[in-house]
Write a structure and sequence with these properties.
homodimer; alpha/beta; Rossmann fold; 3 domains; 7-stranded mixed sheet; 5-stranded parallel sheet; 17 helices; 18 strands; elongated
Chain lengths: 469, 469
């Protein structure tokens, strides 16, 4: 196990290349650390020694009297080797190199990276980057992003941790999480991964109690077997959601010039990941959709899905997608279920799956239906498709949210779907605040649920194979 | 050709089953017509003759002295045959039956529909529905939706027309259009399509000058060949974007109980649609993505795509998707292009495709790159991937929008991509207000562009086959 705690809970941070000019990376990084609410000591290091953001700065890290846990490099690549040497002399534990201009440029850049890392190794310094956006630590309340707060929202504290080779992908994902109300524990963008890599980070997160879900964006993985074994072990404890970019020949070439990664044999790797229970996704909103379900609901105990709605069109789309999905099936409702539904609901409802309550449906009809579907053993996941826009439902929203909360339990997952504008998004946000995922479109919801069920199947298979673990 | 103008430009509207109780369909429909700003005469018809929303109501449509173009039914199915007969006596041209409880319920419902339609036919009344949300006409400024304005946003006036069998799908789509700033000309939700169907509507929209793009949501199509021929003819003039639900056996069953439609042989139908240039999509946000590109940009003159970005991760994802896509290819940039780019841009940029300007990129770097890429004959579509969150770019937004407007022309399409939170969405909205589409994620953007290029290919093939048309 790698202990990387000092990355997420540093007792002091130095910013090398700190600048007083807004827009400069060295300014934005320092400002982000301050704005995030970091409560320990911050030391701006600037060759001119000018005052920055109202703080005294130091010409060299060696001029600081205090001990130093973490140093962040926001300086041109050519200064990195010397800066790393000074960090070594100072006894710094970890360095985050935000700057680009290293291996991803080949030639001189690669040589600079080699020299910088040689120095780091000599001093035993662990390095994140270069060519990255660095770290977000919600416990110590800091981030090293050069994206200002007005341009990028940070998520709240939670139990999702993110490892990403692409800073852009990572910060876009963080913003999506923030918009959806999903909380993050730890985030590392590691760019060229000259030192700390996915293996180190995964080993750390495997035993991190604050991390319940791991999201991984990777371009190229040159150490297949070790990674696969590790992923499989972690997968038994917590899900890994992975987007592997650079899967095609052109994609791999783009990855190479991006983070200097080699893509390796893709088909073999993807197969191995599937076997390891890793949840594979292809796009950023697929990450969000899957994580929403995983983070809010219990895992489905089987593949059977029942839909209930007040406007059935999107359920027809979803029905097609369920039939296309490898791990899902439409529930055949129990006869008893249909009898109970008919006892209470009007005749003009359509008592099949999808269960169509029609546009006249009130919150109470949904509440009753969900209560009955919860009892049906042929139903493993309930998907309420809400048309919040419809008059009778839109006028009983408080009642609806009360019902949804009442039936939100650990026994059977609910995955809601609702497409619409401001009002709909507000209702979806309220559901999610109460721990009930609400996805935006039928196809996306079904495809995300399909992946979650595949993971649940993996866990059951593992449990059967090794009853002792 | 079917002249259905009276549906979209009625000189008077009666609401049969108008109610004074908020939440009731007969109240909400009437209120929607008023709230939309309809400037002609409105007549509430209510059996009790009570005052509704400050308006005098009539016990029967026969009590109204005025001529009547359009009647909207918001009454229980059992009253429909009699109401239709009174509409006939009154000389009404068109009836929109919002109410459900007809063929979709079989048995008695089917019989009620048969009787109602028999009466309509006798009087020559054209009927929309039953079991639908009806019409949105942006010219006459009215809609017949029972979704109140606080719960459902209406889009602005524009040149997209929507035909939808599912009211829920249709109104969700309208809200997506409203959020994206896309404008609508005509909208018809036709539910059970007891009379006016896709063929009638398509024939009308084929020659409607206000309609530049047609969106079609269908469940089941029992008249394959006629539809295919019509679609092919329309496709030469304006694109049809179609979501066909009920493609699988279960989906078809769900469609049957939804709108009483039979699904027909799907594989054959889908093949015929492709041949006819119809753009097929599978989900609601796919409609939005494709329509955004079609409505804002010229069609690409070929399949070659060049990307330019200040954060390349999402471009790696997009590169994979371009390689998977059937109709797209990465541009090999002309040597001259690379020379020109290198003349002006810093050395640490990565001069390939994707062109990586790095996180240091300003608006000016983007402007210069796009100007050069516009001149490269190996580039048919330019995809700028913006990381609006990055400091240097976020601080030159006015300049960026100026550049984007300058290079937004009829010669070469631009399709932007930007994933993020509030700030990013604001910039995307501003791009789109200026006629430049900005899609949310790399995979979605590439898949939408792929479909647009397929349509452009269809048009070129048609032009080659029949040079005289």
């Amino acid at each position: 196990m790698t202990d990387l705690d000092f990355l997420f809970n540093p007792r002091s941070i130095a910013v090398l290349g700190a600048s007083s000019k807004p827009g400069k990376i060295g300014y934005e990084v320092l400002k982000s650390i301050i704005d995030a609410g970091y409560e320990q000591k911050i030391y701006p290091i600037n060759i001119k020694g000018e005052e920055i953001l109202g703080m005294k700065s130091y010409r060299s890290i060696l001029d600081v009297q205090d001990d130093m846990d973490l140093a962040v490099f926001a300086l041109p690549a050519k200064y990195a080797p010397k800066a790393m040497d000074e960090c070594g002399q100072k006894g710094v534990s970890g360095v985050v190199i935000i700057s680009g201009g290293f291996k991803e440029l080949n030639g001189e850049g690669a040589e600079l990276e080699r020299r910088t890392m040689e120095t780091a190794k000599r001093y035993g310094i662990r390095v994140i980057g270069p060519n990255c956006v660095g770290i977000l630590g919600l416990d110590a309340k800091f981030d090293t992003f050069f994206q200002p707060n007005y341009a990028m929202s940070r998520p709240k504290k939670g139990n999702i941790s993110v490892l990403t080779q692409s800073g852009t992908f990572g910060l876009s994902l963080l913003e999506c999480f923030a918009m959806e109300g999903l909380g993050v524990s730890k985030f590392v963008s590691y760019g060229n991964k000259a030192d700390v890599d996915e293996l180190d980070m995964l080993r750390y997160l495997e035993n991190d109690e604050d991390t319940k879900i791991i999201v991984l964006y990777v371009e190229g993985l040159p150490y297949g077997r070790e990674f696969t074994e590790l992923a499989k072990n972690i997968g038994k404890k917590k899900p890994i959601v992975m987007l592997k970019a650079g899967r095609t020949k052109s994609g791999a070439a783009a990855a190479k010039s991006h983070t200097g990664s080699l893509a390796g044999n893709d088909a073999v790797f993807i197969g191995a990941m599937r076997q390891s229970g890793v949840i594979l996704v292809d796009d950023i909103d697929e990450v969000v959709d899957v994580v929403k379900i995983l983070s809010m609901q219990p895992l489905p105990s089987g593949n059977k899905v029942a839909m209930v709605t007040n406007g059935v069109g999107p359920c027809v789309v979803a029905t097609d997608e369920i039939e296309y999905a490898k791990n899902l099936k439409l529930s055949e409702l129990d006869k008893e279920t249909v009898v109970k539904l008919k006892e209470h609901l009007p005749d003009f409802c359509v008592f099949s799956n999808p269960l169509d309550l029609t546009g006249s449906a009130t919150a109470e009809w949904f509440g009753y239906s969900i209560e009955i579907l919860k009892q049906d053993e042929n139903v493993n996941t309930i998907m309420p498709f809400f048309v919040f826009q419809d008059g009778p439902l839109s006028q009983s929203m408080k009642e609806l949210h009360d019902f949804m909360n009442k039936f939100n339990d650990e026994k059977k997952p609910m995955v809601c779907v609702a497409t619409g504008g401001e009002f709909t998004k507000k209702q979806a946000a309220r559901l999610q605040k109460n721990g009930i995922p609400c996805l935006f479109t039928p196809k996306r919801a079904v495809q995300a649920l399909d992946k979650v069920v595949l993971y649940a199947n993996f866990l059951r298979q593992r449990a059967n194979l090794s009853p002792s673990t």
